[in-house]
Amino acid sequence: MRLIxxxxxxxxxxxxxxxxxxxxxxxxxxxxxxxxxxxxxGSSPLGMYQCLxxxxxxxxxxxxxxxxxxxxxxxxxPEDHLQSYHSFMKDNFFDHIDIRPENxxxxxxxxxxxxxxxxxxEAKIKATGGIDLFIGGIGADGHIAFNEPGSSLFSRTRVxxxxxxxxxxxxxxxxxxxxxxxxxALTVGVGTIMDAKEVLILANGHNKxxxxxxxxxxxxxxxxxxxxxxxxxxxIIVCDELAxxxxxVGTYRYFKDIEKNNLxxxxxxx
Length: 270
Ligand code: GLP
Prior knowledge:
Blueprint: E1 2-6, H1 9-27, E2 35-39, H2 46-57, E3 66-70, E4 72-74, H3 85-92, E5 104-105, H4 114-127, E6 133-136, E7 158-161, H5 164-170, E8 184-187, H6 190-194, E9 198-203, H7 209-217, E10 235-240, H8 249-258, H9 265-268
Parallel strand pairs: 1-10, 2-3, 2-6, 3-5, 6-9, 9-10
Antiparallel strand pairs: 4-8, 7-8
Helix pairs in contact: 1-2
The structure holds 2-amino-2-deoxy-6-O-phosphono-alpha-D-glucopyranose.
């Protein structure tokens, strides 16, 4: 696993945006050979999305031949609800780039048969040829997508009950009213994410420090689903200084040293 430590959120976001852009440019996608991205919601990826929008507007990258699969969606929230992940993606990313609407995939949390919807999603990912790069955030309890503590590290797309922790934390998007937060969500599984050819996790702020420490130094465990990344051949966590607060000094210094020539985002596109 690689750990890229950036000074602050702005630099973390630039690095992630340029990294994704460099992958797209290298793949040189075409209609017959699209590049497939797994995408997250949440506050962590906002800066990266902004960076990708700018690179798209400048003509440095195009999303014309990109297919996307989002990680998760709440169950029972109308698609046009301000806090649905459908709305989030439209408002913060898709409405501002040249992606084709038919290439966007987001789980339908209002499907009449939710397990069938999850099976359909898994089958579509497979039929598309798998995900080239899965980008994710991380919960304070170490969850990736909505794979809460206790999720099987081999799990696939399914309905998941949210923990009280997550409901409380996410209530900030629902007028701080926990009653308004859906109790369940559809989410890709840890196994679905691990099947991607590459995984990039973004973590910023002190409230992610325990999750980052567990993810990098902890034993692989369903209690911290981020730890599955240790088993992935191409996993990267990009974080800011605050998110390193719980790392051992030796771990911190090691990654600072081995990545010192890879921190400048400009070099990713040169
Ligand atoms: C939610 C999402 C996750 C996200 C996490 C952290 O639980 N399902 O995909 O990583 O929140 O969100 P934030 O980036 O806002 O801290």
